[in-house]
Amino acid sequence: MNATEARYQQFALVRDMLDTPEIIARFRPNQAADVAAEIASVGRLLLTGEGSSRIFPAKNAIAHARRQGWPLELHTEAGRQSKEYDLANWAVFALSNSGRTAEVIELYQSLRERGHSQLFSLTAFPDSKLGSLARRAFVLSCGPEGAVAATKSVIEQALFHRALLEHVAKRPALASHLPSLARQFRDALTTPISADIVNKLANARTIYWAGRNDGVAEELTLKTNEITRKRSDFLEGTYAVHGIEEVMDPSDVVVWMDPYAGSLTKFEDVLVKGVKLTVIAVSSQPTPFPTIRIPDGGDLSGFVQMAAGWNLLVEIGIALGINLDKPERARKVGNEFVG
Predict the structure, then answer these.
(1) What is the Cα–Cα distance from 159 to 89, expressed in whole angstroms?
(2) Range of the domain at 192
(3) In this structure, what CATH number is given to the domain that contains residue 268?
(4) pLDDT band with cut points at 50, 70 and 90 for residue 184
(5) Which of 121, 138, 171 is the last residue of a domain?
(6) What tens digit of pLDDT does each residue of 213-237 get?
(7) C-alpha distances in angstroms, 126 versus 2, 92, 96, 110, 214?
């Protein structure tokens, strides 16, 4: 993605993406420290939301907490399924960019009717319907987005959850890493991608995203639909070599986020040699496949990987001549509450 060329700058989506490094740099990690203390006293936290407001923010924060061995009991689920659970002894934190998402509003209405008080929210706008149902409502600093696909709000939501869980565990560390993360994010967002890789993806029948269950590949699967209008699928872990190869085609492409070193040979044997499709890696390390090299973000690598994925999707959309800002059917608010 070229930050200065008119063919990129004409799209609000690109401008939203390019705003994100500055949003990272000025993020305030301590804004929910007092709420974190309340959540720690409960000991259980459900992170909920719909689509992009849950996939990367919740899953990436939970994956980090589990890697660190933090004792808080964590779970994530979308609103309707969460409504089926017994959440009497849980704190609940709902994310909704618009604050008008029907599923989480209905969940919070149901919980309030049962006398549940440990309800928190994060939205992009003050005085939202969701915020009115929460005991404490937070507001994003990134401002409204110009495109249908959520981008900069997703990153700020993910930073919020990361900072929140650090404070719950009494291990606040994010503040010192924000300057370097902002630089690495911009580098991954604007690194040149070879025309061969872009053309292969632009001509793919299906773009598969393989990777950990940490929200990165799954969120990029959704963004593939919204931004490039191409079919996509998320293949968690090593799912790509455990049966789905039976229906893959040589025109398909697998984009593998941060490949497992121990699985490189298996992916090459099953997918490249067997199916004869293309595997593209996004990694800070060299791989046997065509590789988009990104900075090593350490335990914040998911954010850098997300930037590289955005970069790739914009290049595909530009190559296909798509209006990146306005999908034909997708809406900014997927299912808006009416009441």
Answers:
(1) 25
(2) 185-320
(3) 3.40.50.10490
(4) very high
(5) 171
(6) 999 999 999 999 999 999 999 999 9
(7) 34, 19, 12, 22, 29
Residues 165 and 246 in one domain: no
- If asked whether residues 111 and 150 sit together in one domain, one would say yes
User: d(Cα 66, Cα 72) in Å, to the nearest integer?
Assistant: 9
Q: How many domains does the chain have?
A: 2
Please report the beta strands in the chain, taking only residues with DSSP state E, as ranges in sequence order. Answer: 44-49, 73-76, 91-96, 119-123, 136-139, 206-211, 231-236, 253-257, 278-283, 291-293
The pLDDT assigned to 329 comes to 63
Q: Whole-angstrom Cα distance, residue 38 to residue 47?
A: 15
Residue 263 pLDDT > 90 = yes
Co-location of 189 and 165 in the same domain: no
36 and 156 in a single domain? The answer is yes
DSSP 106-140: HHHHHHHHTT---EEEEESSSS-HHHHHSSEEEE-
Compute the distance between CA of residue 10 and CA of residue 171 in angstroms, rounded to an integer: 42
60 neighbors 214 (Cβ within 8 angstroms): yes
Which residues contact residue 111 at a Cβ distance below 8 angstroms, ignoring those fewer than 6 apart?
Answer: 87, 92, 119
Q: What is the pLDDT of residue 327?
A: 72
Write down the pTM of the prediction: 0.96
State the SS3 of 69-101. CCCCEEEECCHHHHCCCCCCCCEEEEEECCCCE
pLDDT tens digits for range 274-293: 999 999 999 999 999 999 99
Nearest of 186, 179, 185, 188 to residue 25 by alpha carbon: 179
pLDDT tens-digit series, residues 120-144: 999 999 999 999 999 999 999 999 8
- Are 230 and 162 part of one and the same domain? no
